[in-house]
From TrEMBL:
Family assignment from sequence similarity: Belongs to the UPF0145 family.
Protein's UniProt name: UPF0145 protein ACFYNQ_47050
PANTHER family reported for this sequence: UPF0145 PROTEIN SCO3412, UPF0145 PROTEIN YBJQ
Organism: Streptomyces hokutonensis
SUPFAM superfamilies per UniProt: YbjQ-like
Length: 121
């Protein structure tokens, strides 16, 4: 069972369904494989740090930092999906992100959830 059957995405992750819920309507959990995660730490570019410092004085979105965070979250999620696939899962339930500062030099992003094998009911 892939996401195509479920009606979801395309591309390299299309065979692993990732949801924030604890179940998927129309499917049952046949096997719980366990926790999977994808982790990445990104340092901030000096130019974006200076720009962010200036922007914080006048207000507004920190676009450089936003772009970096989106890229970082995407990379963490790709790593989570790779780990789930490598362990034989076709789904990840209770998907979440955790974001923290890493020793004031960058941002740590962890994508995590429970890898499962789903079957259509």
């Amino acid at each position: 069972m892939g996401i195509e059957e479920y009606g979801g995405g395309q591309g390299p992750q299309a065979d692993v369904l990732v949801v924030t819920t604890n179940d998927v309507p129309g499917y049952r959990v046949e096997q719980v494989i366990g926790e999977v995660f994808g982790l990445t730490v990104r340092s901030r570019h000096l130019g974006s740090q200076i720009g962010a410092g200036l922007k914080s004085m006048v207000g507004g979105e920190l676009k450089g930092l936003t772009k970096t965070l989106v890229q970082t979250r995407n990379q963490a999620m790709e790593r989570l999906i790779e780990q789930a696939r490598a362990r034989g899962a076709n789904g990840v339930l209770a998907f979440r992100f955790d974001v923290t500062e890493a020793a004031d030099v960058g941002t740590e992003v962890c994508a995590y959830g429970t890898a499962v094998v789903l079957a259509r009911v």
